[in-house]
Design goal:
- The complex is a heterodimer of chains A (253) and B (252).
- Chain A is mainly alpha-helical.
- Chain A is built from 12 helices and no strands.
- In chain A, helix 2 packs parallel to helix 6, helix 3 packs antiparallel against helix 6 and helix 11 crosses helix 12.
- Chain A starts with a helix and ends with a helix.
- Chain B has one domain: P-loop containing nucleotide triphosphate hydrolases (Rossmann fold, 3-Layer(aba) Sandwich), CATH 3.40.50.300.
- Chain B is globular.
- Chain B is built from 9 helices and 10 strands.
- Chain B starts with a strand and ends in a 7-residue tail after the last helix.
- Chain B has a 6-stranded mixed beta sheet with strand order 6-7-8-3-9-10, with helices on both faces.
- The chains are: A mainly alpha (253), B alpha/beta (252).
- Chains A and B meet through helix 1 and helix 5 of A and helix 2, strand 6 and helix 3 of B.
- Chain A: Its main location: membrane.
- Chain A: Pfam families: ABC2_membrane (PF01061).
- Chain A: It comes from Kribbella rubisoli.
- Chain A: Keywords: Antibiotic resistance, Cell membrane, Membrane, Transmembrane, Transmembrane helix, Transport.
């Protein structure tokens, strides 16, 4: 059935994109929480945080973008869980389709929905004074990094959706993901942290991704961070993809 | 000609031995009812036949294809209507049909959808979201979705559970219609009257085995011949209900 994979994936992606179109609140709520955080940090806490000569909104935005994605992918596991529960998942499985298309449909939908949320968040940041001299190449690099991160955590969301026992359980996996940027260089420079926290913060994936995006926006030399960030994202993507497909195969065998 | 062949089927969930050697055959174009109480294993049989579940032992084939080895071929020739209407609530009725038509790789999905909406008296509701449908309409849509691509074998798992009497009759009519056009139907039910009204053959699944299998006439002969008694014929509650509520025509 491999010959149908692209066509079936397109059909199923169209279906779940239509779900999003009919309940645009999923995109709006995905964007609202990070926007609220951005307002809070820029206008309340930000004044007390020393980021040197960098404007705080410029400093903050990369972390906010990762939080946007982390909260956005919770809807992927939610939608997948609802498909399983409603029986439509079984209906798809009993059809002569390329079976992995069922998962790819949800993954591509997640990508589209998250990109829209990201555009909204960046738009608000621009209104709040975010400025960058980044050229088209740097913007593309930022987009590529965010897409890679989205794919990696979306496949993680697929694992959560397939293995959840309840609706709450399906989206609970995203809480640690949303929290992770707080223990990184996303909000404050790591050099003010106690040594244990600092060691964690500097060696977890968010810091390298945030630093990479920040340097791309600021047109600074990027250094090693981009390779560390890529290694984290690709590693997570491969693991999550392997885990999700193994779980899926066991589920439908 | 035999379309469905099941032999020595066994399945356990941990300690629970649900199927302990199930055998039956279903002829082309007939309606076969698998009758049993809740938890008898009816759904397990249907899930195995529709390639959603692997059996522990035994063989099963549909249209000559082994459900374990040739599962892709089996999926080409079957459709499954599960116990709970598996429809997409956020899409409209028509979009649901178009979706399945596309996944069955059929030309002109729009036309297929419109034809089925008309056939199941859902044309007016076709543009509405399924979330607004009544239970009967949902079930009709569910069955309509199963007929896309005219699969030669249709599995209906408790198709009328939870439906009101009118909706049940609508579903029964659709099932009879199917068999008239040569489709083989395997349905499971816990309602005796449903099996009696619809099925050409009835098999009773009890404690993991088929304990009897035959036509209604054959099953009747298992008991001592009927005594003739004269009883005043009272209308049943169903007769009263249907007369009072009026039309059995599908709601709009």
């Amino acid at each position: 059935m491999a010959s149908h994979l692209i066509g079936d994936t397109a059909t199923l992606t169209g279906r779940s994109l239509r779900h999003i179109l009919r309940s645009p609140d999923t995109i709006i709520t995905t964007a609202i929480m990070p926007i609220a955080m951005m307002l809070l940090f820029v206008y309340v806490f930000g004044g007390a945080i020393d980021t040197g000569s960098v404007k705080y909104v410029n400093y903050l935005l990369p972390g906010i973008l990762l939080i946007t994605i982390a909260s956005g992918v919770a809807y992927t596991s939610f939608r997948l869980f609802m498909d399983l529960k409603s029986g439509i998942f079984e209906r798809f499985q009993s059809l002569p389709i390329a079976r992995s298309g069922v998962l790819w449909g949800h993954v591509l939908t997640s990508l589209v929905a998250n990109l829209i949320s990201l555009v909204i968040v960046v738009g608000v940041a621009l209104i709040m004074g975010f400025r960058t001299g980044a050229g088209i190449g740097a913007w593309l690099a930022v987009a590529g990094m965010l897409i890679l991160f989205t794919l990696a955590v979306t496949w993680l969301a697929v694992i959560a959706g397939l293995s959840a026992k309840s609706v709450d359980g399906a989206s609970a996996f995203s809480y640690p993901l949303i929290f992770l940027p707080f223990l990184s260089s996303a909000f404050v420079p790591t050099d003010t942290m106690p040594s244990v926290v600092r060691a964690f913060a500097e060696n977890q994936p968010v810091t390298s991704i945030v630093n990479t995006i920040r340097d791309l926006f600021a047109q600074q030399p990027i250094g090693n961070d981009i390779w560390v960030a890529l290694a984290w994202c690709v590693g997570l993507l491969v693991l999550a993809y392997a885990g999700a497909t193994a779980l899926y195969r066991r589920k439908i065998s | 000609m035999t379309v469905i062949q099941v032999q020595g089927l066994e399945k356990s969930y941990k300690d629970l031995h649900v199927l302990r050697g199930v055998d039956f055959e279903v002829e082309r174009g007939s309606i076969f009812a698998l009758l049993g109480s809740n938890g008898a294993g009816k759904t397990t049989v249907v899930r195995i036949l529709s390639t959603l579940l692997k059996a522990d032992a035994g063989t099963a084939s549909v249209q000559g294809f082994d459900v374990f080895k040739d599962s892709a071929k089996v999926r080409e020739s079957i459709s499954l209507t599960g116990q709970f209407a598996a429809v997409d609530e956020i899409l409209t009725g028509r979009e649901n049909l178009v979706l399945i038509a596309k996944l069955r790789h059929i030309d002109d999905p729009g036309k297929v959808a419109d034809d089925l909406l008309a056939r199941f008296s859902l044309t007016d509701a076709g543009g509405r979201r399924v979330a607004t449908y009544s239970g009967g309409m949902r079930r009709r849509l569910d069955i309509a979705m199963s007929l896309i691509g005219s699969p030669p074998v249709v599995f209906l798992d408790e198709p009328t559970t939870g439906l009101d009497p009118q909706a049940r009759i609508e579903v029964w009519n659709s099932v009879k219609e199917l068999a008239k056009h040569g489709t083989t139907v395997l349905l499971t039910t816990q309602y005796l009257d449903e099996a009696e009204k619809l099925a050409d053959r009835i098999a009773i699944l009890h404690e993991g085995r088929i304990i009897v299998n035959g036509t209604l006439e054959e099953l009747r002969q298992l008991l001592p011949p009927a005594k003739v008694e004269y009883v005043e014929k009272q209308p049943t509650l169903e007769d009263v209900f249907l007369t009072l509520v009026g039309d059995t025509a599908p709601e709009k």
